[in-house]
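no rush on this but wanted to send it before i forget. what follows is a protein written twice so to speak, once as letters and once as structure tokens for the fold. mainly i need to know what kind of three dimensional shape the backbone takes. thanks a lot i owe you, the record is right below.
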Amino acid sequence: MTVLPPESAKRGEEVPVSRAALLQALAGQLCGLFPRRRVLAAVDGVDGSGKTTFADALALELNRAAVRPVIRLSLDDFHHRQQARYRRGRTSATGFYRDSYDVEQFRRYVLDPLGPGGSGRYRPAGHSLETDTILSPPELPAASNAVILVDGLFLHREELAAGWDYSIFLDVPFTVSAARMAVRDGTPTDPEHPAMHRYAGGQRLYFTDRDPAALATVVVENSDPDRPRVISAAEAFCSTVRPKMPPET
């Protein structure tokens, strides 16, 4: 996707856009998709890429447009319980990628009922991180033309990718995401620090396993959240990174 003013579009030139302009353009695309059915949209990216903030801002823009109802969900409400998340060890990169989320529960609660032919009744959460308990909240109705906007890690993994009608991948270098995580979580600022092995390593495995930038509808370089840039999959940082550890770690 390229966000262009009309005079530049005629010349085939891409110009920088503001965050507000990009959000408006993305909201316009989502509002125009499949007007007679629900639209499932993903905001993917590494930990610290700005997924939650970006998805919240996009939801606000969609609500401002008032064209379609919006349902805002997060894969972070569908973690596995601790015993499953850490079954390969607390430093395992493979464990972070493969075992963090209960994707089958997410499919049952969200993707299947809200996808084409689904019942239209979904459950917004499946796990509480605070209590480490499995949740089974009451089903909620979704309007037949709702936009369901989901943020989370690994949303282009094989079990989930086919469920999205539209997807955004937020691309940032590990140096940027690690610095943001340090502020948020108190983790090291160096992505190569041993304490970051689980997170950076798991994401490298994801990049190699799925190439999420190539699978996404839109790739957004989000190092500067005030000046995000739409880029090609080939330009994405995630497309250049390969695992630095054996796959079984």
Summary: The chain has one domain: 15-42+53-240. The chain has a mean pLDDT of 90. The first strand starts at residue 39 and ends at 45. Residues 43 and 54 are 8 Å apart (CA to CA).
